[in-house]
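stuck on this fold:
=====
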Amino acid sequence: MTARISTHLPPAEALEALRAAAPLTQCITNAVVTNFTANALLALGASPAMCDLPGEAWMFAGIAGGVLVNLGTPTAEQREAAREAVCAGTPWVLDPVAVGVLPVRTALAAELVAAGPAIVRANASEVLAVAGRANGGRGVDATDDPDSAADAALELARRTGGVVAVSGAVDLVTDGVDVVRVHGGSPLLTRITGGGCSLGAVMAAFLAVTSPLSAAVAASVVFAVASERAAAVAQGPGSFGVAFLDALATITPDDLRSDEQAERLVWAAVELAG
């Protein structure tokens, strides 16, 4: 059984705790996004480790504060490493990329869901597929919106005993009882490689310092605020990617307390913390 922190923290306090702890965050993730994911973790203040070698993955997971398992490019070695890592007792995030339409990763996702992830982070089509209610979207692209996956997310959270975070224009986060909607964020996040995958990694980093529900909300809030700040200065997707990493590095807990957008985003987490 995965050991999980039960303390709820609002996003500002969660960010403070993350930067104080600089948690080691193990990422078993896809080859397309490894560099961007590592840089996003570094920018925010976590310590990335892209350790996906069978025979070492379980050892590394045992000393990490949080683990990401992303199924974007599930090679045979990565599949075995994932099976090892999720048995280490460290809280972990499952990102079931492109499940439903592709058989190998779909079967693996079902196996991993049974192992009890602290958070399942996915788009709406992937959540529907993992919950057994649809066949998935168009590869990594969602063909459904978060609200259409709300019932499936609630059911999946209850089944796993964890949290489901559905990414979209308005993110939906639920532990099977409470539902938090995170508004905001820039559409440019969908125009760069690694926007969603790095969000899963940041959720894993927050798992080292706060509860799964607060970790998912805090990561979603930080990404919403940082992406909007990056979009305000970017000329297009290329400059946005650089500006987004800069925004992750420079965003402060006080920004989350004082930023008008952040205030709209954090109310539910503040209620949970109180």
